[in-house]
Every structure is written in structure tokens, then in C-alpha cells.
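Assess this:
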Amino acid sequence: MRVLVIEDEVRMARLVKRALEEEGHAVDVCGDGPEGLWMATENAYAAIVLDVMLPGFDGFELCRRLREADVWAPVLMLTARDEVGDRVRGLDAGADDYLVKPFSLMELAARLRALTRRDDHRRPAVLSVGELKLDPATKRAWRGSTEVDLSPKEFALLELFLRHPGVVLTRSQIIEAVWDFAYDGTSNVVDQYVNYLRRKVDTPFGRSDLQTVRGMGYRLRDEEPG
């Protein structure tokens, strides 16, 4: 999924970005309130990680403005102050959850998984289509009873297909969901990774469920062959 991290401490932003990318997410980062507001209103994110102390205006104000702009992506607020008043203020501004610094990056990832499942009833704990199955929490995937070893990007790509079975996903849609804005879009990286994924979840099992839709993109077949 695509995540926006709004954090002005460069070291913390890098740590959070790296941890979430290792989970297979596409991560965009910005460092102040106005830029965070612009990015969150101009782009669709599955979740937002928001620091309280920001230049421009703080995380409380940013969260309030996002909700006023009808941006309802789950917001996980980061704060250095473990005070009830701050937590209440954040929740009242529209945040969905909070973490007090210092925190475990593993807990951060788990909180985001919980928030996105809560936000969308179509996000079950384990995704499955036919014999393909994927567990976002443990980062494990299977074809039938056989576990498949996937890289973080391959895992993110399979998760995207499993969340949209039978739907044709264009290369642009795949890039927006799986790669961050640093990707320049000039290479055939989507085609390469779809081929990598096929070699792991289709070819060894004599299947062709990841289909190319000529001139459009790719689709995961949503039914067993007759």
C-alpha cells in the first residue's frame, strides 16, 4: 500500500521510510505541515504517519484540515509527549491512533496494518484468490500448501493483485501503488516485476493466473479454470 510520512526530523523520517519499505509499502516523505496538506489532498494514500511537531503548522492542525478536506485515510500520529491531553487533542482532530516516541518500528508497521484493516472491510487478515494466499502481517505467501519466497516488491505487487482480483490494473496504477514518487517511470520495471512474480507463483505450478491484457495492463484471474 502507499503511505505518506510527514516528519521533519530527517533521521526519524529515514528510519520510518526504510522500515515501511521493508514491509513492501510505497512511501512518500515530506517535512512540514503545508507540504503534507498538499500531498495528502492531491494523492490517494492508504495511510498517513503524522508527527505532531511540524514547521508551518503542527500535526493537530494538519489532521483537522485533512478531515475538513474530506481526506479520510487512517492517520497514525507520532508524539514525543505521553500526555493524556495531547492524545485526546489528536483523536479529536481526527487521528485514528497514536504512538509515543521512542517506539518500535515493528509496532509502527503493525499499527498501520490494523488501521488499514479497520478502515476497509475488504481488507481481511489473510488475502486469498483460488490457491494463492498471502498474509500481510507475517509477510508470507503460498500457492496451495507450498510457501513462496518473495522479495518486498514482489510481495507488494502480489498483495495489490490479490486486493483487486479480476480487475485490470494499468502500469500507472501499479506504479502509484507499489513504487514511490522517486521512481521516474521511464523503465519497464512493472513488466519486469510481473515476470519475476509469474516465475514464482505461476510457472512452477503450471498456472497462468497473472494475465497480460494487451494495451491495458495486467489482471489476476479471479476464477479457477473450467
In short: The first helix runs from residue 10 to 22.
